[in-house]
Amino acid sequence: MTAIDPRTRLLLEAPIVPTVLRLAAPNVLVMIVQASVGLIETYFVGKLGSDALAAMALVFPIVMLMQMSSAGAIGGGIASSIARALGAQRREDADALVLHAMVIALGFGLAFTVILLLGGRWLYAQMGGTGASLEAALVYSHWVFAGSVLVWLFNALSAVIRGTGNMAVPANVTVAGAVVLIPLSPLLIFGWGPVPGMGIAGGAAALLLYYLGGTLVLWMYLRSPRSLLKPKLMSVRLRWPLFRDILRIGLVGAIATVAANLSIGIATALSGQFGPDAIAGYGTAARLEYLLVPLAFGFGAPLLAIVGTCIGAGNRERALKAAWVGAAMVFAITEAIGLAAAMFPRSWLMLFGNEPAMLEAGTQYLHAVAPLYGFFGVGQVLYFASQGTGRLFWPVMGNLARLAVAGLGGWLALRWGGDLVHVFVAQGMALVAYGVVIASTIAGGAWFGPVGWPRTTAALMRRIQPT
């Protein structure tokens, strides 16, 4: 029998709480860095005026859809497949999955480029974009999505490495990239010396340069002796079962991702009925909610690796215990952030502008939604943990419940004469539905069935196979 790598043994045997905390630490560092990068870019774009800020609010949900799809949905499928292969000691399959992950990333990246270049104007207009804000949104969108392949490859390679239980390398690459990106972004936006200012397009150009550099570094690591995986691109034959193993989790996860971002997109469109300043206010406030996603991912990525590896090895009890430990941690952190934002909303909003209508809309959102962020955190981290099992039906149902409550509730609120704040109340109730559906169904046996637990590894593997 092949000897178990020490990193895989850590996922299978080490105490859960310190293991989760130790593996989550570099990911949380990534969250802080990514948050800083996103906020700084928004800060500089805000200096270009309210139309530019509204343009960022229009494009941001679609950028996050791409990020969450590539890192969380398809990326989760990649990490889950590799973790389960390593847990079952299928090293050749784990190595071959690297090429399959890259092919999938290329396909999705090209699809995002074509769809957004051709349909961007229609989409942003449907979300409430008009006039100068719509034109600025198109400039930013065309630049970002022209390089979609770079975003997808970066996140696919990061997922490959995280699937081995290595959270440090993707974290280090992100931090190092931010050191370059933070000064590069204002340089390209405003220009300096011989470098001409590109306006809002400069932020997008800096972002793509960051992903290009990060992709090259991650690939160099995978080709180095330090990598647990040994990808051999020229000698690997593409196999449908390996594509299927990634996509059966990733595509289902993508449905959840689309539903989550569609909820934000619908709220943006409903806010648009109150003017560009309302869009800017909502988009700026809701950016805090988006920042909770990488925080939950910081804990969710190691949980996915632990759960997936334990599933591969047949240790179902440890997989479930790890998920609940992570859920409790993330609930406490996200709820604390939400309560602070609700009590001091303008401390956040005035980082990006001081227009009264923008501040009012953003304050209404944070008062209504932020105190319920704990439910969002629980739903997110259990979604990532569920990817490790390959069972995503109920996490998807949780996202669809969120979409239904947010979309229908917001539409009915305005139809019945409600104001913008009632749209935001529906958003808050949607987060509650999201967290409760996912947590309650896992507690009820969604992973392994409600009646008994299989006694053998073979029985467990049969039960978790997709139907």
Automatic annotation (TrEMBL):
Keywords: Cell membrane, Membrane, Transmembrane, Transmembrane helix, Transport. Its main location: membrane. InterPro entries: MATE_fam, MdtK-like, Membrane_Transporter-Flippase. GO terms for cellular component: plasma membrane. The chain crosses the membrane at residues 20-40, 52-76, 97-120, 140-161, 173-192, 198-222, 246-270, 290-311, 323-344, 364-385, 392-414, 420-453. Pfam families: MatE (PF01554). It is found in: Cell inner membrane. It is a multi-pass membrane protein. One of its GO terms (molecular function) is xenobiotic transmembrane transporter activity. PANTHER family: MULTIDRUG RESISTANCE PROTEIN YPNP-RELATED. NCBIfam families: matE. This is MATE family efflux transporter.
